[in-house]
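note to self — DONT lose this again. spent like an hour looking for the file last time. sequence + predicted structure for the chain T wanted, 120 res
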Amino acid sequence: MRITVQQYQKLQKKPAAKGRAAKKRMNGLESKYAKHLDYLLQTGKIAGYWFEAVNLRLADKCFYMPDFMVQLNDGTIEFHETKGHWQDDALVKIKVAAEQLPFKFIAFQHKSGQWVEREF
């Protein structure tokens, strides 16, 4: 019996456990930034990084999941966000997180081959 590629891919997708969100994959911009973080890791400029490692509670039923948790060589933790453009809710959430929590929050946009950073 032959099946199409779409049918095979559908068979490979496993449903998430009830009540749990399916594990997300990196989009193109996140993948590009992960390569940048890989370079920083290999050159010893950072100690490590994790994709969507934490979900930060900002208020009742309001959470913010930063794209990357980055550990600097001195042990400091930063949260990095990658954005092509900002939606209002995402901008509000990162600002609230930066005000409430004792971490550095930095957003990165890729423009003209460079990573442009904005600290909150």
